[in-house]
Amino acid sequence: NPCFRILRVVKFRRTGESSRSDEDVISGEHEVQIEGVRTELEPIELEDGAAVPKEFANPTDDTFMVEDAVEAIGFGKFQWKLSVITGLAWASNYAMEMMILSILAPQLHCEWRLPSWQVALLTSVVFVGMMSSSTLWGNISDQYGRKTGLKISVLWTLYYGILSGFAPVYSWILVLRGLVGFGIGGVPQSVTLYAEFLPMKARAKCILLIEVFWAIGTVFEVLLAVVVMPTLGWRWLLILSALPLLLFAVLCFWLPESARYDVLSGNQEKAIATLKRIATENGAPMPLGKLIISRQEDRGKMRDLFTPHFRWTTLLLWFIWFSNAFSYYGLVLLTTEFFQAGDVCSISSRRKEVKAKCTLTCEYLTEEDYTDLLWTTLSEFPGVLVTLWIIDRIGRKKTMALSFFVFSFCSLLLFLCVGRNVLTVLLFIARAFISGGFQAAYVYTPEVYPTATRALGLGTCSGMARVGALITPFIAQVMLESSVYLTLVVYSGCCLLAAVASCFLPIETKGRGLQESSHREWGQEMVGRGSHSPGVTRSNSGSQE
C-alpha cells in the first residue's frame, strides 16, 4: 500500500546554515515557501505494507517567525541607519518642539503682554493635543502600517509648525500649537517601528541611544535660539525649528514597513523581501525555511493591568511616569525663570515688586540666559551616559530611585539663595538625573509587562506622563508668581515620593528578557531570574531566554 513521504527539505538554522532531514512535515496555515523548501508529497511503499496516516506525521521545525529572522540576522548596518533616521524624528519632531516651549513663553509674555496663566496654557495645550491624538495615531499605524502613520504625523507637525510662525494673535497660536501637539502624538510610532527591527540584546541600549538624539535636539534648539532670537525673532524660530522635519519626511522613503506588520496583514511576500534586504545590508545569511505567523495572544484589556500580579506595579509606574514628566518639564520651564532673576531669592523679591507695580511686567531672555540655558541642556548627555553605566549594574528600580532622589536633593539646595554659577550647576545635575530617570522608566516598563499587555501598559504610563506635563506649567509659571519656595517644595516632594515608589516596585527586570506570557511561574518573575534550560523561546516580541 502506498504512503506518503516528504522530500528532503532545508531546515531553518539560526546561523543561516542548512542541513538535510528526512523528517515528516505538516504544512500550517499562513506559510510561505522560500529558499528552496519543497513540500510535495511522494507515494512510497513500506516493507510491511502499512500506510502512515497523515495525522501521525511529526511537525517540522523548518519554519521561522519574523522575530527569529531579526535575531538570526542580528544588529548591523541596517539598524545603524535606522537608528539615525529614528533619532532624527525623535530630535526634530519631539525634542525641539518641546524645548521651544521654554524659549517661546517668556518672549510672548513680554511681546503680547500675556498674564502668567495664558503663558502656562500655551505650553499645556501642546500636551492636550498629544494626549488626544496618541490613540488615533496608534489605530492608523495598526490599520495602514507604522511607516504610513509616521509619515502623516510628521507632515502634519511640519505644516502646523510652520503656520505657527504666522499666528497674528494669541488665540491663533494657541490653536496652532495645539495642532502641533496633535501631530507630535504620532512620534512614538517611530520607536515602535525601530524596536521591531532590533534583536533582543541590542534593544535596551538602542532605546537609550534614542535619548541621545533627544539631547541633540534640545541642544540644537537652544543654539538655534541664540542665533535667531536676537535678530529674526520668535516667528522665524518656529519656522526654522520645523524644517528638520522636512529632511525626515524625505528620508521616510528609505524606511521599510515593519515586517511584523506585513505578516500580520497577510503580506508575507513583502515581509520576506524586507528581511532579505536587511540580511543583505548587514552581510548576514537569510534564515532558511518557511515564514509563519506567530501565535497571537488576546490583546490586553485594562483589567489585565490590575490583576494581583500587576496591580501594584501598574499603580506605582503610573505615579513614576507622572512624576518624571511633571518634574522634567517643570525644570525646563523653571530654568528660564531662574536665569531671568539670577537666583531664587531674586525671584522672590522680584515677585513682590511686580505685585506693587504691574502684574504684566516681564524680562526678555539675554545672551547670558541663553548661554546658561545651553549649559543646563547639555546635561542630557551625561544623564544618558550615567544611566547607561548604572542601569545594568544596580538595576532598573534603583536607577529610577537614585535619579528621583538626586533631583529632589538639588531642588532643596535651591532654598539656599545660591549665586548664578552654583544655580547653573544645580540645575545641570538635576536635569541630568531626571532625564536619566525618564530613560530608565522607558527601559523598565516594556520589560515588566508580558506581550499581551505590553503596549497597553506602556501606553497608559505614557498617558500619565502627559497628564504630569500638562499640569506642570501651572506650577512652574503660575504658582511661581505666588511663592517660589512652595513651587520648589512641590517638585522636591513629588520626586521624593517617586523615589520611594521606585523602591517598592515588586519586580526587578535586570537581566530578564521580554516576557511572553503572564501565566509563567510568578515566583520566578518576582526575582526576575531566568532559570530556563538552554534554548530559544519564541514570543511575539522575538525575545530569547
UniProtKB/TrEMBL annotation:
Quick one: a GO cellular component term?
Answer: synaptic vesicle membrane
The record's section on CDD domains has: MFS_SVOP (cd17441)
User: Region Disordered: what ranges?
Assistant: 516-545
Q: Which residues form the Major facilitator superfamily (MFS) profile domain?
A: 83-510
Q: Where are the transmembrane segments?
A: 82-105, 117-140, 152-173, 207-228, 234-255, 309-329, 399-416, 422-444, 456-476, 488-507
Q: Which keywords accompany this UniProt record?
A: Cytoplasmic vesicle, Membrane, Synapse, Transmembrane, Transmembrane helix, Transport
Q: Does this UniProt record's set of keywords contain Membrane?
A: yes
On whether Transport is a keyword of this UniProt record, the answer is yes
Q: Where in the cell is it found?
A: Cytoplasmic vesicle, Secretory vesicle, Synaptic vesicle membrane
- Entry's InterPro entries? MFS, MFS_dom, MFS_sugar_transport-like, MFS_trans_sf, Sugar_transporter_CS, SVOP-like_MFS_dom
Residue ranges annotated as compositionally biased, kind Polar residues, are 534-545
Question: What is this entry's stated membrane topology?
Answer: Multi-pass membrane protein
Annotated GO molecular function terms are: transmembrane transporter activity
The record's section on SUPFAM superfamilies has:
MFS general substrate transporter
Organism superkingdom? Eukaryota
The text of the family note is: Belongs to the major facilitator superfamily.
Annotated protein name in UniProt: Synaptic vesicle 2-related protein
Q: Tell me what organism the protein belongs to.
A: Cochlearius cochlearius
This protein's encoding gene:
Svop_1
